[in-house]
Write a structure and sequence with these properties.
This is DUF2992 domain-containing protein. InterPro entries: UCP021328 (IPR016787). It comes from Paenibacillus aceti. Keywords: Coiled coil. The protein has 137 residues and is an alpha+beta fold. The protein has one domain (2-103). It has helices at residues 37-54, 72-84, 90-133, and strands spanning 2-7, 12-20, 23-32, 59-60. The N and C termini lie far apart (74 Å).
Length: 137
Amino acid sequence: MKLTVFFNGQFWVGVVENQIGSNLTACQHLFGTEPKDNEVLDFVCHKMMDLIAENRQGVETCPNVVRQRINPKRLARQAAREIHRKGISTLAQEAIKLETEARKKERKTQSKESLEELKEYKYSLKRQKAKKKHRGR
């Protein structure tokens, strides 16, 4: 699990990438103004797990290769590069995009169903009105 906090030009955004096997899921949280350390800690402790649990869509990645022990100096250089790297990975962007598309489809089907129910209700009212009108003849 990896949390990346960065400034996207307008807001501070936190992107959580969770890789289980070869499946990568990602979700983002909008912080707004620059988050303080305690705000990030609060997000990690309380909100992050709920945000990850909501995700259903994921992206297939190549399986992680078991690595041998890494030299500490090399590890420090990699960590420094990771800190200076700006933005989120393209796989995370793709996972977020898939999740938003899935939610969009779900919302669309729900709104279509509610519209159909409303049409049926209006039609039934119309039929009742017409029957009531011609009742005495």
